[in-house]
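Q: May I have one protein plus its fold?
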Amino acid sequence: MYIHHVAAYLPTDIITNEHFTRLNGLSHEWITERTGIRARRKASPGENTNTMAVEATRRALAEAPTFSASSIELIVGGTYTPHDTIYTVAHAVQRELNVSDIPVVSISSACSSLLNAVEIVEGYFALGKASRALVVVSEHNTAYNNDLDTVAGHLWGDGAAVLLLSKERISEQDLRVQSIRTGGAGNVGKADQSVTLKPVERGIVMPFGKDVFIHACTYMTRVTQQILEQNNLGIDDVTFLIPHQANLRITKNVLQQLGLPEERGVSNIEELGNTGCAGAAIALADIWGQLHPGNHIVVTVFGGGYSYGAMLLER
């Protein structure tokens, strides 16, 4: 299985930390010290999870002309911030592409949805039910967020990304998906309470951030080590590590535990905030042009409900 191209869409509205200083007194220094976040993107009126996904899809296909919309045989969408729980992000992308009679699936495993979506594609490919697929991950966090929440209201940003996947190699620039490992730890710690989004109540809340921090660092480090060992690779073989973009302190902790220098960690949280399951895919799009033959990239994620995973890519 190969990733032929990755493209992202980010809203143009930029919300700096000063916005939260004016609202609830949280200083720029206080926010950056604890999260690393300096700014985040916010969807404009009229934008939503589906529209951002559609725009990212347009960009991906425009940048990869050999991957035609008519050749797509499967669409898998991932989000925990849906615009519509019935007409899902995957349906919106299918309508944009005008491709009929193919499977469209939308999933939610919190911020781990990216890897679960790719894993679903892997299953379809293995069963011979598709040979080209599109994975779209999109989050409209600000639609659910309460900016006045001094615990987590300053964390969230909006954005979307699209991965074009094929069963066979299309070009020399493709990334081979060597391996994917996913798991769930919903039975440990405060997984049932630490991060929740109950639309009929208060939207996104994170009352137990310390529990999230501890388990995110533990599981992303562990699953990265496992996937490297599974593929007979060492930490020195990793060109880039792309962790879930939740908190810069988490990223630095994981890098430290693995023994990777900070320059090998890819981070966009400073300017984008936590963009949920889209964050790691946006980061992969950010470094796409920097990748060379022989590079190994590990994408590792952790989400609310304590789902987690890692994906090993090779150019």
Q: What stands out?
A: The first strand starts at residue 2 and ends at 9. The chain has two domains: 2-166, 175-314. The domain at 175-314 is CATH 3.40.47.10 (Peroxisomal Thiolase; Chain A, domain 1).
